[in-house]
Specification:
Elements (H helix, E strand, L loop, with lengths): L8 H13 L4 E4 L5 E3 L13 E2 L2 H23 L2
Antiparallel strand pairs: 1-2, 1-3
Helix pairs in contact: 1-2
The structure holds zinc ion (ZN).
């Protein structure tokens, strides 16, 4: 999903916050580890049908996604 790279840090943080506030509305794809809405039967990214429904894991995952962009700075520092 090339579009994901164009999402601003702020938008990413807001999405992560929304997921943390309502973890029961989301689940994690076991195939590609995307957070998807709980109502889908197939992952929209990789079409897997196994999901992790743990709300604790959904929250943890959302926090990682919200922070991921900061890590990309490190690779630029190496150039
Ligand atoms: Zn998937």
């Amino acid at each position: 999903m090339a579009v994901m790279g164009r999402i601003s840090m702020k938008a990413r943080e807001e999405a992560a916050r929304k997921i943390v506030e309502r973890p029961q509305d989301f689940k994690i794809c076991e195939g590609c580890e995307s957070i998807v809405v709980a109502s889908v039967d197939l992952c929209p990214n990789c079409h897997a049908y196994c999901f992790n429904l743990s709300q604790d894991d959904v929250i943890k995952h959302a926090e990682i996604l919200g922070a991921r962009e900061q890590q990309s700075v490190t690779s630029e520092d190496l150039l």
